[in-house]
Amino acid sequence: MCFWLGVSRSGYYDWRNRKDSNRTSEDAMLKIEIQKVYDKVEGRYGSPRVWKTLQNQGFSVSRKRVARLMQEMGLIARVTRVTYRAPGMRRFLASGENLRSDGAVPEAKNKVWVADVTYLKVKKQWHYLSAVMDLHSRRIVGWSLDTKRTTEVTKRTLATAIKKRKPEKGLMLHTDRGVEYRGAEYQKDLKRHGILHSLSRPGKCTDNAHMESFFHTLKAELMIFPRFNGHQ
């Protein structure tokens, strides 16, 4: 075997009978100390915290060395994944119903309005356009543009539409389930003006197809080629 490995018989026996090096002995000693720390904290520490503990105990050892030895020993920190659940939020977003399930178009104005929010680029910056459409006339009765998508944008749009049209109580407003329409302040405005709130079904953007179509046409015909330099 020595012949095939290219080593002498004396060299082989010298290697086999050689005592462990100082580093090997130190590694063995460190493994004992690492195991003590690991057991004391019931496996909650990974190599960084084990290394820090050994340093505090007076051991001069590098962090990489501790990580290597722990890997050789198969020691892994026990980590519990912490998750935060908000079951109330899920129920909140799922609440509300679609009052326009038949999809019928009203026979008079100020009976049903639809609203939505989309994004547009103005001066190389993204803006959010909020709009309200009268479903009977297909006219935009209120709109607002802002750099942030918040309830304030949709509230401002609603206020503009109400001021312009002065609808009677019983008007229905249909929107998607976005938080900008579900906020408490927005809901207060709807209630104060006697407006019924209809919501698209979860995941059914076709329930608000008229606004989706309007925004598609707006972007296709006005936003692709021109480059607006301001809020025109």
UniProtKB/TrEMBL annotation:
Database matches in PANTHER family: TRANSPOSASE INSF FOR INSERTION SEQUENCE IS3B-RELATED, TRANSPOSASE INSO FOR INSERTION SEQUENCE ELEMENT IS911B-RELATED
Pfam families reported in the protein's UniProt record: HTH_21, rve
GO molecular function per UniProt: nucleic acid binding
UniProt superkingdom: Bacteria
Database matches in PROSITE patterns: INTEGRASE
Taxon lineage: Bacteria, Pseudomonadati, Pseudomonadota, Gammaproteobacteria, Oceanospirillales
UniProt protein name: Transposase orfB
GO biological process, alphabetically ordered: DNA integration
